């Protein structure tokens, strides 16, 4: 089968490479001759990057990119209102990505100087694409990958109705070694509080920074788009922004800058007609606030190739492709419009609700089975040693029963202070030190009790409040945050009352550390009080305590450390027809789910003896796939598979 792709940009080239790997005959037709100069750079998440890296297997071609470690959102006066660590984002120059893709696609099958004119039909079926230069390309399937102004789309569906241009963007690339005292691998955005004006900068390499200025043209606009006019306009609008903004403008070559009129159109009712199908911006277009356009094009290509491989009938494959992509891209269109409205009306939102202009593609796979979903109220505490040793059980529960189980994390307030504290055998820090050492030995989980001798925590309330504050941002990231502060206190002997450690854990979990600090004095503290009240009403006196229930109001309680079989027994009582997932015990898969694991956790999830787990983990460490932190009583193993 021969596939004729119209458009040799990122979408078309990615699709062409993938189809050739599946032994399709492919011809890509591009209207321009030579490498396109327009388009500077973009941010891409691992979701898109992983697909791109799949393309060069068996090849020495390397994709150039710059890792971006953090995002900082500030006001024009420099006040920071958001600060997040970015774990999976990289900046790629458009010219580098096009070059990478071209190196992976044979030149003989890439026809330049071909601008699409019309299709040729025989017996009611399209058999060829005709181009303005008079050339014709015959084929079986035709793909429109010719961008937002797609002529292919117009030919099969007619003209789309674009939304009015409400936001414009000017982009450029500045050559500077450094622009601020912060890390050069930081995405910084300055957002005006009064009207629609923002400036952002992203490192594209060690010496290049891509920058953009988004503005509301109803406030002020350009009379012409000459380099001199663009330069004067940028300096005028950004005159009250910090010096690092001015320094980027000073280092910019405005002859390469341009004005981008941002717009979108409603989701199409289909992405195909007969044997013609659309991908990328030709199929769907969202406003740039989502940073999703390039990744969407790459994901389109992968999904389309998978669908073609799963169906003998190409129209059924196209229908499935639309079914799989429509909901996501429709959500991106909707989100782009919401972010546009917020941008144009910045005073309508408070600092905590300011959106981060980055989205990922993780979908929620949690399903209710027969209308029943098990709810677990889990009462815990950041310094509870028993809550630490049940981590292997909770992780196995997630892998095997995540489709059935919803765990709500609540803080119980284990240690208000040491004043008049009396909890059985624990009355003072030295008692806690002794207990932690005993628990570590009996349950084979690394715990170093020396923190209670060297830098004892005065209370577990501050880290508990920090966790509740994290939940206000993202419940999943809050769990990652809780795990990290547990590692800090149990293995690294770090006093997690101190803000420096809480901030580091927040950034590690992908949370906004600036907001976390604000919420700890306000909303987070109130949520913690609510948890303490609920724990009192439910008479929680032991940690951990787990309350199980379902929609029929059946209830069970587990207190303290219990074997995993007890948890499974309750799940089967609540849902007799439950079917647990089989765990893929490949080490890379396990470390993808959980980026850090103890030896006990790895052995428990892999269902292998501790000695076997130790050998596997050490072998992976020696091969560079894992890193490790060695504490007095054990090791925490750290995922490096993606970096290898």
Supply database-style keywords.
alpha+beta, Arc Repressor Mutant, subunit A, globular, 38% helix, 22% strand, single chain, eight-stranded mixed β-sheet, FAD/NAD(P)-binding domain, 644 residues
List the helices and strands and how they pair.
Elements: E1 2-6, H1 10-21, E2 25-30, E3 41-45, H2 46-54, E4 66-74, E5 80-93, H3 94-103, E6 110-112, E7 116-122, E8 125-131, E9 136-138, E10 141-144, H4 151-157, E11 168-175, E12 186-191, E13 197-203, E14 208-215, H5 227-237, H6 243-250, E15 258-261, E16 272-273, E17 276-278, H7 293-310, H8 314-344, E18 374-380, H9 385-389, H10 391-401, E19 405-411, H11 429-443, H12 451-454, H13 461-473, H14 475-490, H15 499-508, H16 513-520, H17 523-537, E20 545-549, E21 555-559, H18 564-574, H19 587-593, E22 596-598, H20 599-606, H21 610-622, E23 626-631, E24 634-639
Parallel strand pairs: 1-2, 1-10, 2-6, 4-12, 10-17, 18-19
Antiparallel strand pairs: 3-5, 4-5, 7-8, 8-9, 11-14, 11-15, 12-13, 13-14, 16-17, 18-20, 20-21, 22-24, 23-24
Helix pairs in contact: 1-3, 1-7, 2-7, 7-8, 10-20, 13-14, 13-16, 13-17, 14-15, 15-16, 20-21
């Amino acid at each position: 089968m021969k596939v004729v792709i119209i458009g040799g940009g990122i979408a078309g080239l990615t699709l062409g490479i993938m189809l050739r790997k599946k032994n399709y005959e492919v011809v890509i037709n591009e209207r321009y001759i030579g490498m396109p100069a327009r388009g500077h750079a973009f941010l891409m998440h691992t979701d898109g990057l992983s697909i791109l890296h799949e393309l060069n297997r068996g090849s020495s071609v390397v994709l150039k990119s710059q890792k971006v470690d953090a995002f900082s959102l500030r006001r024009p006066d420099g006040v920071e209102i958001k600060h997040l660590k970015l774990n999976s984002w990289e900046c790629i120059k458009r010219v580098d990505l096009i070059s990478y893709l071209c190196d992976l696609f044979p030149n003989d099958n890439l026809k330049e100087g071909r601008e699409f004119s019309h299709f040729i039909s025989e017996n009611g079926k399209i058999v060829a694409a005709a181009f303005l230069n008079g050339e014709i390309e015959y084929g079986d399937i035709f793909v429109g990958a010719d961008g937002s102004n797609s002529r292919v789309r117009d030919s099969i569906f007619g003209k789309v109705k674009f939304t009015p241009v409400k936001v414009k963007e000017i982009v450029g690339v500045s050559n500077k070694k450094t622009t601020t005292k912060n890390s050069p691998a930081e995405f910084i955005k300055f957002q005006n509080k009064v009207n629609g004006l923002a400036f952002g900068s992203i490192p594209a390499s060690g010496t290049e920074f891509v920058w953009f200025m988004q503005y509301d043209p109803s406030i002020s606009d350009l009379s012409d788009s000459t380099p001199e006019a663009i330069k004067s306009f940028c300096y005028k609008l950004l005159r009250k922004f910090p010096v690092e903004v001015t320094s980027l403008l000073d280092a910019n070559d405005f002859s390469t800058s341009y004005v981008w009129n941002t717009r979108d159109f409603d989701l199409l009712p289909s992405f195909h007609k007969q044997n013609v199908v659309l991908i990328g911006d030709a199929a769907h277009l969202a406003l740039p606030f989502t940073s999703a356009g390039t990744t969407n094009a790459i994901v389109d290509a992968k999904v389309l190739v998978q669908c073609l491989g799963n169906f003998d009938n190409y129209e059924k494959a196209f229908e499935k492709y639309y079914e799989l992509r429509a909901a996501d891209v429709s959500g991106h269109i909707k989100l782009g419009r919401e972010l546009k409205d917020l941008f144009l009306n910045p005073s309508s939102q408070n600092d905590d609700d300011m959106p981060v202009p980055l989205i990922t593609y993780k979908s929620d796979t949690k399903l209710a089975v027969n209308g029943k979903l098990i709810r677990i109220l889990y009462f815990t505490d950041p310094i509870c040693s028993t809550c630490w040793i049940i981590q292997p059980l909770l992780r196995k529960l997630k892998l095997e029963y995540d489709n059935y189980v919803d765990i709500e994390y609540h803080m119980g307030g284990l240690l208000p202070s040491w004043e008049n504290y009396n909890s059985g055998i624990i009355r003072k820090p030295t008692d806690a030190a002794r207990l932690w050492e005993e628990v570590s030995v009996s349950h084979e989980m690394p715990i170093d009790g020396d923190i209670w001798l060297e830098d004892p925590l005065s209370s577990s309330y501050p880290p508990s409040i920090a966790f509740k504050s994290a939940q206000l941002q993202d419940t999943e990231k809050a769990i990652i945050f809780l795990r990290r502060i547990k590692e800090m206190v149990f293995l690294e002997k770090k006093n997690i009352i101190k803000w420096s450690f809480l901030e580091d854990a927040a950034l590690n979990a992908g949370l906004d550390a600036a907001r976390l600090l604000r919420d700890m004095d306000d909303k987070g503290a109130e949520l913690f009080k609510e948890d303490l009240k609920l724990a009192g009403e439910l008479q929680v006196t032991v940690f951990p305590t787990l309350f199980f229930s379902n929609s029929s109001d059946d209830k069970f309680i587990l207190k303290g450390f219990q074997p995993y079989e007890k948890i499974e027994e309750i799940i089967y009582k609540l849902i007799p027809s439950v079917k647990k997932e089989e765990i893929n015990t490949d080490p890379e898969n396990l470390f993808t789910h959980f980026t850090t694991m103890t030896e006990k956790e790895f052995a428990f999830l892999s269902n292998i003896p501790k000695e076997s787990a130790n050998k596997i983990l050490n072998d992976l460490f020696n091969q560079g796939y894992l890193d490790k932190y060695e504490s007095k009583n054990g090791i925490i193993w750290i995922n490096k598979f993606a970096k290898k």
